[in-house]
User: Fold these one by one.
Assistant:
Number 1:
Amino acid sequence: MSNIGIYGMGVIGGFGCGKEALSDALHGSLKGKLPALQDMKAGPDDDTTLPSLMADLSPLRQHFKPMKLRRVDRFSQMALLTATECLGETTPLAGEDTALLLASGYGAAKATFGFLDTSRESAPSPTHFANSVHNSATSTIAIFHKLKGPCCSVSQFEMSFATAMASARAWLESGKMKSVMVIAADEYCEVNWNSRLRFFGQPEGELAPHDSARHTAIPGEGAACFLLERCDDRGTPPPYGYLTHASVTRDGKTPEGWQADDNQFAILGLDGHKVCHKFYAPWTAMEQAAYSRLFGSLPTSQALDMAVACTTIKEDECIPTPGDKTGDSNAILQESKPLNGKTISCIKHGRRGELALVDIAARPPVKG
Amino acid sequence: MSPAITGAGCLCAGGLNMEECVASLFKERKMPQPPTRFTVDYGDATPVYQLPERFFEEHPVDLDKRTLTTHMAIVAAKQAVEQAGLTAEDLASHKVGVIVGTTVGCAMNDEPYYYSYLDGEDPDLGPINRFLDDNPADAIARELGSLGPTQAIVNACTSGGDAMILGRDWIESGLCDIVLVGGSDELNRVTYYGFRSLMVAAPEECKPFDATRKGLNLGEGAAILVMESDESRAKRNAKPIGHFVGGGLCGDGHHPTAPSPDGIGLRKAMAAALADNALSMEDIAFINAHGTGTKSNDQVESTVLDEEMPGVPTLSTKGFTGHTLGAAGAIEAVFTLGCLAEGKLPASPGFAVRGDDTPAALTTETTSFTGAVALSESLGFGGNNTVIALTLNKEDA
């Protein structure tokens, strides 16, 4: 069986746009510099707001003319921007047959509500309807980049990204596909922000992901894209590491054959949601960090955690949790240190305790 | 690898289980009617295919807590599991997964909630909880006690077929031994308005591939199939009702809602489905076409079929079920297995005369076929194309 490598990456979130922006944000956090929060509308009136971490999509206009983007909604633009960055870094082996696999918790939420607006006020808008389907983003990427390979979109709320990675891995291992781009995206939508506010209230102070006593979650939006290929096909080591595991279990237990050891660094999906904190108790002993202060809370945040993991591998440096690091575990990383060949486990628990696990490693798991 | 299918559940306007659906497919055509579960506030109502009312008597549900999409998926899954003879112990494993295709099932589009929000009220959060709790794949897993991965495919109208391909891939990669695969979608006013806004909803019964076709009729339903590795099936001594022997999915990269005029994605998907088991056109007994009755879908699909599969008997069941969107690929997989078992095809409801732009003909009467493998096609928004290959006995493929 061939190893699967991560050969390209694109990313956007509240920290900025692109790999360099993410790296800068990680290093900036060591000096106490954190991405700025924006007060975003979270209700039908302008006075109700939530501090949020928002993505700036303006770099997309460096790649495509505004005229071409005029009918592309924000959700698809975010996905397109990360795919464009990823494709700008390297050319997939499969060329136009590259497969696209998109994961999202909410899908194109704003276009969906935009369609409801037109349905209520006048005639339903065909453009909003076309943009409202979850797979509009893969269609947009395929059209803009002239890709004619398999396209698939999946939605499993917080588990979306891990199941997409599991499927991408299966596609590559089967030998049927040569290059798979996995994209994950979730966008700001005031209706969803409003329901968050009503469920959880305003955050109680600064985001403190390891603190189990307070609700400190900050909503965010963002996207990430990863190009996966078999290492034997490429013939070169992957710059962002090897995908060694992707799974989801509904009972929150680790799957058969997977075992934590001392040689692992955990990136926890902790994002300040007090109600979910308890699910992370089994990971207390693993050396760990949580990066939600850089991009906020969103269903597909595990993809942004993986972007951090890829950066960690590329730079061989584990950076501690940005912002407040206080918590019950003694294994919370307090100072940056070399990764030293450790495997990185991106761990996300769902609202019912389900476990999404994505592992990447700096060194090849199977010697080829 | 060609995993076995050991059970199937199916419900749609034509029936409430696989046996009933397949039997009634060979009987008189059902006609679509204006929707009765929601009002139509603009224009004349275009007709749809709704589930028979007796479904709600036989399978009661509180639609404030559970979407009809998820409810239908669970009912179909239970039928499939029962036919497959799977026990609770068989299902309670990290190696049992669930993949369900849907469009409505993962959309946060509750009209009363949203309009109440817009009006400055504090609407009850029930619809949000329902959205978070009611992902159809996850809900099936919870209901049946399976512990492995779940995935909702939201790939528009190819979702049901895509779920079957991914199920095969999960088994082939060793991620799962058993995967419940399929699709489910309810009739919903938002999608109803959406298809009307695109001017593709027919004002009368749909007529796939026909010269006088005027568009599609929306439908609703669900189908779930139990897909299983040979090892798992042999261990349980379970009898297969069919095998999945090929699958291809491919995008056009052409237009957000219309297929590529040259049918490039469909041709590639078809080639990929055949390549999985080194099949050729001569092996194909019949094709279950996507055949919605819209101008652009039928023109492209018919042209591709005429060029790639000339003379192969072709069927469309949309004039029997309506277009069930994310469920269509799975429901049509069940019909495909049913027709293979019957050894004949019914007439394609709505088709009478080929159009100038639809060179391939559909069946107009009960038709026999030769060969052991059938293809089922799905085309969808975003330029998606999915083709699956099914057979009763994989040794015949």
Number 2:
Amino acid sequence: MSKDSANTSTRRSFLKSGALLAVPVAAASVPGVVLADDGLKARVKRLQDEAAIRELHQSWLRQVNAGERAARLDGAVRRITDDHAGAPDKIEIAADGRSAVGLFDCAVEVETPLARDCTLAQMAHAQGNGTFRRAERRTLTVDYTKANGTWKIAKASLTTL
Amino acid sequence: MLGTPYPKKQMHRIAYTRLTGEQITAKLDPVAGRGPKSVSPLATDFAGKSMNIVTDGGPALSYRFASNTRLSVAEDGGTAIEAGFGALDMDHICLFSHMIPGTQRGYAVIVDRDSRLATVIELWFSGYEDTREVQRQVYYGYVDAGGQAPTTRHGFTDRLEGRGYHWRQDTGMQTLEYYPSAGYSHFVELSRTGGEIGFSAPSDYVKLDDGFFVYTRTECEFSGTFTAYVIDVNRTRQMGVRLGFDEGDELHYYLFRGDGDIVGQIARFEKFADYSGDPIPAAPGTDGKPIKGGRRVYRPFRTMEKLTKEEVAKVVREHSNAFPARVTTGGAAGMAGNALPANDFLAGKTFILRYDNGPVMEYKVDSADELNWRKDGKGDWTKARYQAYETAPGLFLFGHLLEGAPNHDGHIIAADFHQGLVTCYNGFLNTPYFANEAGARTLFGVLEMDGIQPPMYRRHTRTTEMLGRCITYSYAPGLTSMHLYSTPNTVSWIIFTPDGHGGMEWSGPGDFVKIRDGIYFMYWLEEACNGTLGTVLLNLNIMHDAGIGYNCGSRGLNMSQIGAVVRHAGKFEVDKYFQIKT
């Protein structure tokens, strides 16, 4: 396995290995001689980290989409969903295992307030429609850090495709 | 009375009395005792009957009808109270109404005798700071006659959206009523006020079944009068109730019948499977629950800025601004997001606009955004910032402020360099009601320039070709409205919800000039609203307009570009209800 491939996980590879991690009994039954292999230990560690990051990511997305203030990406983003036509998700874990970067192609709903600079916009606000939503395809880049065995989001940003 | 009964003041200019609760009660009490009047015969099959109505989330009403004009009602199992009432029926639908004596409340009840479904409209005064404004809450339910309760209900709908009627009531009242929204409507009183301009009001639309619907409107910002009627859409008949105080504070409470004509059906813009109504429901209360009688009402008179002549002079002196750089940070970016590009055709040209019975305006144009003007050949030339937009080949819309004019005038001009004709909407301030509210006069004239020989007699002319038309204007993402040209002198505008329902609506006086085939120069005045003079040079050949707005508020006097991509939503055939056709 090359170094690059060791540090890169696609959605497809994650799902394959995720299935392995989802079966702890089977994992526990792996012969000790295999677990003793350093390479395999590192791989399992990486897959565990990826799974934790994936879980953190999904949890965070749910918070964003629920409009929870603490999870807001910026004032305009109201919803993020997977862009299934986009590139596969990518989670790159640093060699020291203490930081990671996730790249996710997604569809973002951006809400922009209508400026109250004309009668029509004022009426739109008055009827409860004072914002305009549009969907855009973007790449979500998330920086993760690991402290005390727990992954956290350090920074998230969106770039236009 | 000879002639058309034009009112001395249109509705938006009447200073309606702020009635006290005592005044309202004093006028309601005798009416509650006797019930509503009716020109048409009342229904005669109520005497001796009883009716229990159950509503979802609303009152349970137990009625006993002692006669065809007297009932007793117990609300939610309470003490029965006697009241006068009146009822009308139409096919299997009946409508009756009564007040509750000793209160400022009452009901209009609509019952489907076949399905036993009921729509109950509770009505009351003193529910808003303007106590005369009738409040309403619509409940759906059924007549409990024992046995299993119906599982269906009447409900709000957009099925009437886009329809227009001419109604002739048994009272002699004739109206044009347009339903271009699922939450508002527009009405023109032809018989009472001459139909010069129309007005807009929040409305409910309820489907009883495919043949019968209920419409309501409350004349908010005006008299506060409430009207509700059932429409038999197949036979184009109506029966209804009207409750409220007129401009003379006389209480009107009567039932009516009417016959009508469908004047048209314009397009709707919801998705095809969407027949929902109540598109702009009221915001919930602080407890998250619906507020009884809550509704979204556009109240421009209350919210508009009102400046004195001195304040106007100050803001104009300090903050006059023509065609500022476009702000693109907002989702709306004003009304210029889809505007046509500014054009430099006028740069370097010298010409005269000679208006009939108006000024002679000389122009020397320096560049694409700076010109020099002089009026009537007098005084010095004055520099002004301007913009011009070519709406059709050789046809330009341009505008500029007239610095130094005592009423802070602005000229917005449709100049046809092919025909040598011009029309100017001359905006001005210091108008009688609020100094910052724009007025407008329409000037017709010719364009004199080397190489152009203007006509001697021909001019642009006012037109009724736009009368009854509905045009949607998409100014910017998220900012689309629809114009309804409801009378030869009215522009009404409707705001859409994100899912395409017509929502809030308002209106003002307007003017319509034909420039070329398919090209019209129009204005609207936001009187008792924001005071804006809005102008559009609409080209139906390219389905795009160019426009200029003229507005004065505390932030200054502004002339700014507007522009939209348009759609033709349809036309109401109402020419015959007005006395002129041009």
